[in-house]
Amino acid sequence: MNESRNDATYTMGRTEGEEERLIQQSQLYDAVTRRFLKEAGLSSGMKVLDIGSGAGDVALTVAELVGPAGAVVGVDVNPAILATAQARAQEAGFTNVEFIAGDARTLDLGNDFDALSGRLVLMYMADPADALKQLATRLRPGGIAAFQEADFTPYRQMYHPETPLANKLIDWALGVFERSGAHSDMGFGLYRAFVEAGLPEPYMHFESPVGGPESWAGYQFVANSFRSMLPLIEEYGIATAEEVDVETLAERVRREVVTAKRPFALPPHVTAWAQLAS
Ligand SMILES: C[S@@+](CC[C@H](N)C(=O)[O-])C[C@H]1O[C@@H](n2cnc3c(N)ncnc32)[C@H](O)[C@@H]1O
User: Fold this and answer.
1) Is CB count within 10 Å lower at the N or C end of the chain?
2) Domains of the chain by range and CATH?
3) How far is the CA of 163 from the centre of ligand 1 (A)?
């Protein structure tokens, strides 16, 4: 995609709070991921490589889909977060998952995987198409590549005059993602990445959790996301900690949504999968 750029600064930081935020994010997006991975053909007995496992949520969903006869290898550059993933796998009783620390693009893991999975990870890589090309070499003939990525481009269309705080949050989030070097348009960018990587044209889907009810878990997730992004938001001069005010943010968004009767859309995710020729 862009040969001269570097990998992004991990926009969401590497704190313990970020691990919790990833788990919370999963609770909001897992239904999409599970449906998508099943549709892509992940099933019992498969050996799957999960790229950028983080706290392990996608790897654990995959472990369930492939069952005890299958196996999952989860990879992440951040060894600290893999300790959490490992502990969660153990606690849930999975014996078919292992986690390996390292850069997924360069780790030598063999080339007999039935499928690759990855969520919110290509967006942090300098050249997603080239990364996908490297990663696809881990697949056996007939193997499946299945990736889910966020896309912030349609977000500006969601501005609404009665929700100034939501509009401001969208601006701040877009600003920090763009400045950090992440591909904020990775979701729709998946199509080009697959094709430029030499994979078949992918089957794609687009969706976003949207919340209106007072009890929606998304308000707290939004606040925690801004807690994770705050160091970069301040470093880049996008907003001050006082303006963001993470401690009251969930409540402020909730109040705005309820008063304006205008639901809040979380970042849209795009899913893409393709199967190699046998
Ligand atoms: C936003 S998190 C997503 C975690 C998980 N996939 C999920 O959806 O819950 C992205 C993860 O990708 C990891 N990552 C980024 N670049 C990577 C690379 N080149 N190889 C392996 N992991 C990478 C980061 O360390 C981070 O934990």
Assistant:
1) C
2) 16-275 (3.40.50.150)
3) 32
Q: Provide the pLDDT for residue 4.
A: 53
Does the reported pTM lie above 0.85? yes
Residue 2 confidence (pLDDT): 39
Tell how far the Cα of 76 is from the centroid of ligand 1, in angstroms.
6
Distance CA 167, CA 109 (A): 44
Distance 55 CA to ligand 1 centre (A): 9
Radius of gyration of the chain (CA): 18
- Give ligand 1 pocket residues (Cβ under 6 A): 10, 22, 26, 51-54, 57-58, 75-78, 81, 103-105, 119-121, 124-125
Per mean pLDDT, which range of 15-24, 56-65, 73-82, 193-202 is the poorest?
15-24
CB burial of residue 9 (10 Å; 0-12, 13-18, 19+): middle
Provide the pairing of β-strand 269-275 with 210-211. unpaired
In angstroms, the Cα distances linking 40 to 37, 107, 130, 146 are 5, 25, 22, 7
The β-bridge partners of 113 are 139
Distance 50 CA to ligand 1 centre (A): 10
Q: Report the nearest atom of ligand 1 relative to the CA of 75.
A: 21
